[in-house]
Amino acid sequence: MKEITYIAVGVAAMIAGGVVIFQLSLVVPIPGVKYILMAPYLSMVIYILLSKVKTNYALIKIGCVFGLIMMIMNLYMGLTIIATALLSQLSISPIQHQSKAFYGAVLFSAYAGICALVISKYLVGGIFKEISFLWLIATGLICAAFGIIGTILAKKIMKHLMKYSYEQ
Q1: Which residues of 111-147 are buried (b: 16+ CB within 10 A; e: fewer)?
Q2: How many angstroms separate the CA atoms of 64 and 164, rounded?
Q3: Containing structural domain, residue 12
Q4: Pairwise CA distance, residues 162 & 158, whole Å
Q5: Which of 34, 62, 100, 161 minimizes the number of CB atoms within 10 Å of its CB?
Q6: What pLDDT digit, counting tens, does each position of 50-91 carry?
Q7: Is residue 35 part of a domain?
Q8: How many domains does the chain have?
Q9: Separation of alpha carbons 58 and 21, rounded Å
Q10: Residue 167 falls within a domain, yes or no?
């Protein structure tokens, strides 16, 4: 029951934050900019969720809930989120120590940018067909860098909040 609550609150936070960041991204007409701007926030929320939900396949659970909800608004966005969750979960599966949450959060941000552009390029088409392979890689690297920043910030916030926690 605790796991479901954490996932629900985390997904709600990602949606609420995503709406604000999406509005800001409309000002910059660069493919993938919304995922670059979203990367620090996404990685913060994902890191906190992975730190709290320590079950196997937590990223897939989070991603499927988030993706299915977002499919209501945009099919391609939902597919992007589910693909991102699957790739992130596969990438962190071999990790057996505490840094699993860190790498999962950073990779989630990186894969979100790459998957969004790949899905836009090959499924949406139009102007997105012009996205170069180099821009795909650059977007993934920028999202990863911003994801690291967001994850470090999340660690600091959690450390600060633990001082005042009843769970100690």
Answers
A1: bbbbbbbbbbbeeeeeebeebeeeebeebbebbbbbb
A2: 32
A3: 2-162
A4: 6
A5: 161
A6: 999 988 899 999 999 999 999 999 999 999 999 999 999 999
A7: yes
A8: 1
A9: 25
A10: no
